[in-house]
Amino acid sequence: MALVTITYQDLLDFCEEGNSNDSLRQRLVNDIGRAYGSNGLGILSVSGVPGFVELRERLLPLAAKVSELPPEDLDSCVSEKACYAVGWSHGKEELTPGVPDLSKGSFYANPLVNDLVAAMMQRLHQNSNDNPQEEEERLWQLIQDNFPFFAPNIFPSTLPELETAISEMGQCIAKVGRMVSRVCRVFCEQHGVLVDLEKILTESLNCKARLLHYFEANNNSTQPDEGDQLWCGWHNDHGSLTGLVPAMYLSTQKPQKQLPAAPDSNAGLYIHSRSNEVVKVSLPTDCIGYQIGETFQILSGGLLQATPHAVKSTLTKGVTREAFAVFLEPEYEFPMTIPEGRTVDDCCCPDNPANKALKLNSIKSRWKKGMCFGEFNNITIQTFHKQLDAAE
After folding, report:
1. What are the residues whose beta carbons fall under 8 Å from the beta carbon of 85, sequence distance 6 or more?
2. I need a labelling partner for 340 at 20 to 30 A (CA). Which of 101, 225, 235, 390 fits?
3. InterPro entries of this UniProt entry (predicted)?
4. Which domain holds residue 276?
5. What is the pTM of this model?
6. 152 and 115 Cβ atoms separated by less than 8 Å
């Protein structure tokens, strides 16, 4: 299976109002089917995005710099109240039951707005013709009950360039992702499902970026020695669309140098296909990758399908891996509704051999009719932790 690649210029032409190039439009729609349909890898790449290469060169080295900040600076960016969903997080996840994952550090932020609550309240007052007080009170209660979802960004004052770099790269990825979702919308329309996926992302202020620093091999005593334990565990993204920046490998020697490629052939992104093949996917450094998540799978009635994936880091000493992902998502109360004419099984794809082979929690076990995105998000996270607890 080959990675499907489309050009930014073709996307731009597709999205241009009044464009009558039917052959171009159909070619891109077919590309969406090859990438995200029932036989696809669940990922495509977009090449030629203006400014992307420069943004990548500016952002990814900062992942290493964040990890090297003094402990007091990192502590100022840790939010236990937000369940480590914003700011710095290290050793707060478990990929092996009972063993903290110290192999990587993460920095989380919303690249669209620094304070989601303030932005939502401002929008409420701008759009309301009546007294918004009652709606505001209801929103405040929702926010208090789900603080990790709504927590504001935290950035270290000693690395001021981090905020701008995350914001600019995140907004670039979000912009192109909305264009990809427009083509997805047309693909769904051609298969009898009417859902405006582009509008969902365009209207949402909710978005989560994750800047990742993978420490050098054997840097921590809890780092597993071999086999599948070295992988960042198999999972499906539960959001709408995930934008991926091709990873960068850096030497730990000073002055730090960027490696032209991964130092060993096993490192990188792997996808478990629906034909039960494990496929390594290598994104060119000038391309943005976009993976379909379970939310778009449900909203498209299963026409677009998420695929399990994992990351294997390099075993080469003296090398770190820097990465960046942007999770494009609806807002908390967005309804996770099945499209007319589609069934629960259409949406959940219960017979997906990849999910069965990896023993992943099915969508059907987490999603229920009438559920909103925030509830689906919460139960997905809770289920992941319960799965770890049960494995102990």
Report:
1. 79, 108, 148, 149, 151, 208
2. 235
3. IPNS-like_sf (IPR027443)
4. 4-114+152-391
5. 0.93
6. yes
Q: Tell me the CATH number at 212.
A: 2.60.120.330
CA distances from 42 to 237, 326, 365 (A): 11, 16, 21
Strand partners, 271: 279, 309
Residues facing 211 on adjacent strands: 107, 324
pLDDT digits (tens, 9 = 90+) for 63-117: 999 999 999 999 999 999 999 999 999 988 766 556 677 788 999 999 999 999 9
In the DSSP assignment, the letter for residue 97 is: T
Domain assignment present for residue 25? The answer is yes
Distance CA(292)–CA(1), nearest Å, equals: 17
Number of domains within the chain: 1
36 and 304 Cβ atoms separated by less than 8 Å:
yes
Inside any domain, residue 70: yes
The two tokens of residue 259 are 């490696």
H-helix segments, 102-160:
116-127, 133-145, 147-150
Q: Which two tokens stand for residue 158?
A: 């000693």
Are the C-beta atoms of residues 234 and 309 closer than 8 Å to each other? yes
Residue indicated by tokens 């502590």: 75
What gap in Å lies between CA 41 and CA 34, rounded to an integer?
Answer: 8
Q: How far apart are CA 154 and CA 53, in angstroms?
A: 26
Strands 207-214 and 287-292: unpaired
Q: How far lies 285's CA from each of 53, 104, 174, 266, in Å?
A: 7, 21, 18, 17
Is residue 57 within 8 Å of residue 80, measured between CB atoms?
A: no
Can you tell me which residue has the tokens 């073709």? 10
DSSP designation for 330: -
Cα separation, 47 vs 288, in Å, equals: 7
Reference 378, options 104, 56, 83, 15; nearest CA is: 83
